[in-house]
């Protein structure tokens, strides 16, 4: 497993106050969070691909990735899927050590605003 990916996971676990458990899957890491939320983190250093997805009840809530399917966005291919389903630029670089900081802040803020914990 790539060192940057491991470091990003460790940062998320340390900085996100809602972590319940961690599961290492074949192609990604799944982190169970309070309130029935799940955070999937995927990173392939060889291909330069990543995905960070907050899920609840098998539905994506928010997520970041660099799949090349939104070429008109600034910062292509990096983008963010918001809670309403809209896609916008993410400002990500593809470096998990840098990008995970914004992921933790956004997910922690999102969960803290919910009354279902």
């Amino acid at each position: 497993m790539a060192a940057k990916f491991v470091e990003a996971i460790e940062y998320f676990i340390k900085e996100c106050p809602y972590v319940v458990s961690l599961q290492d899957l074949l192609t990604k890491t799944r982190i169970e969070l309070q309130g029935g939320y799940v955070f999937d983190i995927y990173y392939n250093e060889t291909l330069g691909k990543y995905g960070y997805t907050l899920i609840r009840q098998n539905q994506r809530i928010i997520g970041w990735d660099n799949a090349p399917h939104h070429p008109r966005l600034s910062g292509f291919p990096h983008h963010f899927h918001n809670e309403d389903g809209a896609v916008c630029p993410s400002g990500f670089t593809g470096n998990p050590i840098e990008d995970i900081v914004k992921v933790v802040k956004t997910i922690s803020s999102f969960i803290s605003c919910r009354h279902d914990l």
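Residues 36 and 56 are 6 Å apart (CA to CA). The longest strand covers residues 37-44.
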